[in-house]
Please model this.
Amino acid sequence: MGHDKLRKFAENETFRCLLQPRSGEVLVPSQEPGLHLKDHPVKGNWCSRMFDAPRPVVLELGCGKGDYTIALALKHPEFNYIGVDIKGARLWKGAKYATENSLRNVAFLRTRIEFLEAFFAPGEISQIWLTFSDPQMKSENSRLTSPLFLERYRSVMARGGVVHLKTDSRFLHEYTRAVAEANHLDIIASSIDIYNEASREGFPDELLTVQTFYEKMFLQMGLPITYLSFVIDHEGRYIYPEFDPVFWREFEKERRG
Ligand SMILES: C[S@@+](CC[C@H](N)C(=O)[O-])C[C@H]1O[C@@H](n2cnc3c(N)ncnc32)[C@H](O)[C@@H]1O
Model:
């Protein structure tokens, strides 16, 4: 491992805002298929353990360096923000900024998004941001907006909870729209090119002004940036949508050359 990564990992241990549980703390060994999770002590207790005051909690999943987590937290002191990612060297940047600037409404969690229900109680989350998630074009159940993941989000979200998806991937945008439509979820805003959109109705203020590390790369490549937001209220199981992955995979391939 590189010297820089080791230095960041060592510094991560000193950040109060960064929680880095081992998988063994939430995973129960089992011969049965599927994930067997046990509750982490922070579940249901984020506001008292990690923040200075109770406020609605917003997650950024796959936050990387935590660009949205930090920018939103600075702008909205009335919310608590948690960036979740599995990569410690990326989280280091956001956690260092939050520490050095004494941000009291920011935390980071180093874990797999698959383990969400071990860390958050039902109703504990009010919004989720997915920023430039890997589209996982070949594996639907690894896709962060598949019915499998939406059910995980629903189980930790308050009623009326909103999911925001910002991505360069038309594949992921169209897939997620298809999931939302198939499940009659209320779509708040949808755009296939946010910087060239005549109507910005339903766009959060920060959508155009906060650009993540990956977004800047994709903009330099000339790719349009898409956005979709929807309410996650729904009873019963989420159904899988009719969606043509081959068509949209080809579309992405041609567009990226
Ligand atoms: C393409 S990067 C985007 C990072 C950041 N949101 C940005 O826009 O700059 C995707 C991030 O998601 C994280 N990630 C992907 N799958 C994950 C999972 N299942 N659990 C936790 N993190 C995950 C990766 O570690 C990576 O940092």
The beta strands are 18-19, 57-61, 80-85, 106-110, 125-131, 157-167, 187-191, 226-231.
